[in-house]
Amino acid sequence: MKTIKFLFITVLSLSALVSCSSDDDTPEAVNEEEIITTVRLELTAASGDMVVLQSQDLDGEGPDAPVYTINGTILADTEYTGDIQFLNELESPAEDITEEVLEEGVDHQVFYTFTTNNADSSVTYTDMDDNGNPIGLSTTFNSGATSTDNILVVTLRHEPTKSADGVSTGDITNAGGATDANVTFTYDVN
Amino acid sequence: MKQIIIGLVIAISSFSYGQDCTYIFLGELKDFHDGTPIESATIYQKESGKYAFSDLDGKFKIENLCAGTLTLTISHANCETKTVSFEINGDSFKTILMEHHIEELNEVSVTAHVDKKETKTAQETVLKEQTLKKYSALSIGDALKEVAGVSSISTGSSIVKPMINGMHSSRLIMLNNNVRLQDQDWGIEHAPNMDVNAVSQISVIKGAGALAYGGDAIGGVVVANPERVFLKDTLFGKTTLSGQTNGRGYAFNTKLNKYTKKGWFASVQGSLKQNGDFEAPDYVLTNTGSNSKGFTFRAGKQTFESGFEVFYSYLNNEIGILKASHIGNIEDLVSAINSSEPLVIEDFSYDINAPKQDVTHQVAKAMYYKRFNNFGKVNLQYDYQNNQRYEYDIRVGDDRDTPALDLKLQTHTISSDIVLDALKGYKLKFGIMGRYQDNFANPDTGIRRLIPDYDKYDFGIYTTAEHNLNAKMTLDFGLRYDYNRIDAKKYYITSRWEERGYDEDFSNIILEDLGTQLLVNPVFDYHNFSASAGFNYQLNEHNSFIGNYSLSSRPPNPSELFSDGLHHSAARIELGDLNLTKETSNRVSASYNHNSNQLNLTVEAFYNHINDYMYIEPTGIEQTIRGAFPVWEYLQTDAELYGIDLSANYNFNAHFNFSNKSSYTVGNDIENDRPLINIPAFNTRNSITYTNDWKQFSASLTSEWTFEQTKYPDNNFETYIASTNETVLVDVSTPPSAYQLLNFYSEVTLKTSNKTNLNIALSVNNLLDTNYRAYLNRLRYFADDMGRNVMLQLQFNY
Questions:
Q1: Which of A177, B85, B94, B225 has the most other CB atoms within 10 Å of its CB?
Q2: Global pTM value
Q3: What is the ipTM score, two decimals?
């Protein structure tokens, strides 16, 4: 008799517990806040001419590869002001992650690496973090000679060792840290 | 009470029949260990069906016996039930020794003696408190490696998952005080939430033979139990304090037990552990500190007739993960693999920063049992578990302190079993189990859920039978049916949903289309049948054989079904598959055991064939804004695992002892004709121990030798590294070289008073400060394993 009573009470309390815990019927959708969908490099010449190089991946970690576009023409032997933007376009309006990078400039650096440089282009840093090291959001881009199929790789590193050899001049080799963005821009110089 | 018993004895024994039956049998029951008389035992006389009881001196009398066989079954709350036979041809007197140990809370697990195991025909090894105490400052996964054939798969030094014969995670069942742990064990970096200090004995059962615990233990079962309860008015406890050089860690554990003669008991236990960054021989392993807090409480009443228990356990672990293992993309992984040292080395610190885990596991249990005369015993149990898991990643901005993963898993289980032992020579057991589980993935993390919200329902029913064919042969059988339903609500990125082909196969489960994401409601049902059969043949006093066959199946776990996204620490995109079906294992095993004063030898061999074995492997590369990532997909194949485990112990004389534990395991993917990943290499552990009665002194030197794994699948892949404009081969497959470690352990026990003593233990692990990396450590790409560690432990028993 005791057994039956015990069983009864247990089943009763179990069903009570079960019924109060099923309160999450439809889970909330998560819109990723930190994901970078778009890396945009805006090059502005003194003349006001603008070239925009962009890599955009609107499905984030999804299977679709980033789409690369270039708008405008890079002219030979021209000095451009370079501004890079990191955006999350899954949010509406798009979230500008560049601001966070700037705020935590000490812990971030953007690297510009030419893997094919027929034009002999160059990028130099024009900004500084609180320790006097470059962040790489603002740059000067020198286009170099007329050529085709130049490849520029832009990498955003989180927590790089900025004091390591060559890092402050833009050499990624000894930088370490974790990669937040890594995109490839191909361009011609006309 | 005594008078009634004596009266009963007289009443029963004076009830006579048959003319020539005038013989008298006098019996005396004594404790096997200390010879104290055992009173109030029930003596069942099989031939006449009558009962007798032992008196204060452990004596009993059976009168009016006929010539012939007399079979007595003696049971007592504190003893193992024993059946003995005598030839009666006159008045006789016999002393019967009883194994004096406790009737456990569950008939399933009458343990506490090395010969009394959970199972009769499975390959089982029991670790007792004497062994477990060495691991007070370590984890359960470290302690289990004492068993030949058990290794571990780990993430650094603090996250250690046990591996039995090459299988881990969802293929093992872990039981803590008869509660099956539900702590998201599918994750390879999710260590079992069990405090080695809170348990007193652990049984490791290889294979799925122990069907009472579940039908899906393709690898095996780990059964951890707390102290047995004594029917004695006593209060005792122990306090352990230890300190270690590596990680500058300390551990504190204390336990207090109160028992009464009437069967009431209560115990409390608490432990604290902390360490800072561990050190490899050449550098600090930055951010490998950990912090652990545990508490258990147990109380109840236990008598032969009936009993109950309430149990609560709390365990919180905060574990730092090697900072150098945090990588952003494949390029970072390549530089980590190519660098001989970790890419981040900072000064020693106790700080635990991201990446880290913070996991809290709570168990509450209530159980009741009652024994019915001439029938058996009925157990009822309800348990509740709450597993809260936070994982912190290195994040920026406002999200810096927000966990990247926030999962709450709640489980309710109700179970009941009936043990029938009234039938001589047979022991039958029936059991039934119902379970409800609710997983909640908190969306506030701001990161897509790794594991979706789900409800899971399990129902199981089983029967096991044990039959003593004769004095030498025991047979056992088991049958089990399990039903599982998983009902999940998950968001898929639309492009992924289509790329997987789910838009064709699963278009009917879409609840909502948010444009870039789809909310879907997968519901899967699984029916699993499992069975086992085995024999135990005692050839003679010294030699025995066991053989066992078991059939078991395991439904896919949430990670295998639903994984979908970037796994940062591994720099890979992991994809589950909604089309996966259950895997089915057929395992045969045979063991030989030799037991004599000088030599103990156990040889265990097994062959396990698994249909639709689930595993993960790289299948391609995907580009994202972060760069390139290899895609690892869950797939199914037919696999086989086989191996042999050896455990030997040889006493040269009263002082010197040599022991060896060796294990050889092979795993093959039959369909694709290649080895399985993460199979432990051949390893052998040899110890020489010197013991002396003086202060119970002992000292031992152990060599742990792990060979290089030469059988591994080639999962290397080529990837284009944009920054260098090169295509490189990423070697994620090649196992590290063989290594040998020397460990030293020594202890003395000092008597501090009549009832108290102090045990002092000094140990040195990795005595020679050897640099090594272990194949089964997931952080082997990034850093060496731990260097020398000197540990001093004081245990005060009172």
A1: A177
A2: 0.84
A3: 0.83
